[in-house]
Amino acid sequence: MKKSRHPFLLLLTVAFCMEFFLTGTVCYADTEAKEVGNLYALSAVLMDGDSGRILYAKNGEEKRPMASTTKIMTCILVLENSRLDEAAEVSAYAASMPKVRLGVQPKERYLTGDLLYSLMLESHNDTAVVLAEHVAGSVEAFAALMNEKAEEIGCKDTWFITPNGLDAEEETKEGIWEHSTTAADLARILRYCISESPKREEFLAITGTPSYDFSDCDGKRTFSCRNHNAFLTMMEGALTGKTGFTAKAGYCYVGALKRDNRTFIVALLGCGWPNNKGYKWVDTRKLMEYGLKNYTLHPLSEAAKPSVPEELPVENGQSRILGEMREVPLVCSQGEDRQVLLKEGETIEVTYEGATGLSAPVKRGETIGRLTYATEGWIWKTEDITAKEDVDKITFDWCLKQTVKRFAAG
């Protein structure tokens, strides 16, 4: 066999293949990946918290277990479906949950609002079940609410089984489903919690509290909770976040930051296993700093607009003079100017799609066309182009009246 004349080239090729197959990372000219640098997380996403646009992703659509980051969904559903002053009773099943737990006992009663601090600051698993059973009657019914909300938010690759994030599987008609999400979906859920939910202010207040003390409803037991979200004091503008860990999920995290009117969300799944608890903070800082450094706000109004017709001809439309082509004026439904996050080199492209001519009848306010503002396929905004007035269709009676008027005038 003829020996290779380029042994170094052969070794380089082998090293490339090993990197590809062992890490699952494709080595191509990915500008964002190079600028962000290596991440510990198996799946990661940086999202624009205002628009929902994903600014960076590493395996962002890969399904993985998410551990206690699940509890952000539990928290927002409890806030939306109960009052903070309601008393929730502990079941034997809730009391049997494994660590980490508050240590509640069957038949004890606690205020829902107090338990939410236990849920989000200390990540207690028994508390999650108490709240789920209080809201929906059972864990299974609460999980159904979680999945309904996930679908409503736009999460297509998320499936909830437990309210606390413990690893779980269940068999359905479609097959075996695992308690799992994607980094992209997890970021979408937190975005809902902090910007879209009617209970967003309450969510931020609870998750941003450094510590909280409370008692059961009978005043027999007292508890102290401390917030374990180190990100809150790690970066200026940190808003909220939730940690998570199971043996299967590894360390997970989702958090949000707001600075200079820009909101960024980071979601991490599979970000190391013991003894690498700090990896998630390294990745979170790296992604947040990437967003802060590279993305700035730009008004949509700065985009160059295409030529849009001011009026369009209307066939068979009634006009002031018999036989004259009627034209209908158009109006653009311009909304309030928005600021959007763009990276250097990105632009806002505005395209127009609409009719070049109309046929009567035309109704005032009828949509004739549409302006679309977009960046690399992400749609920021659409503006409808509508008819400014009615145009009735020519009829025999109308023609007769116009003819009579013409003879009368002559």
If you had to describe this structure to a student in words, what would you say it looks like?
With 410 residues, the protein is of the alpha+beta class. It is built from 11 helices and 19 strands. Helix 3 runs parallel beside helix 6 (125-136).
How does the major sheet shape up? 6 strands, mixed
**At CATH's second level, what is the architecture of the largest domain?**
3-Layer(aba) Sandwich
What is the CATH third-level topology name of the largest domain?
Beta-lactamase
The averaged pLDDT comes out at 90
Radius of gyration from the CA trace?
A: 29 Å
Strand content: 25-35%
The percent of residues in helical segments reads 25-40%
General form: elongated
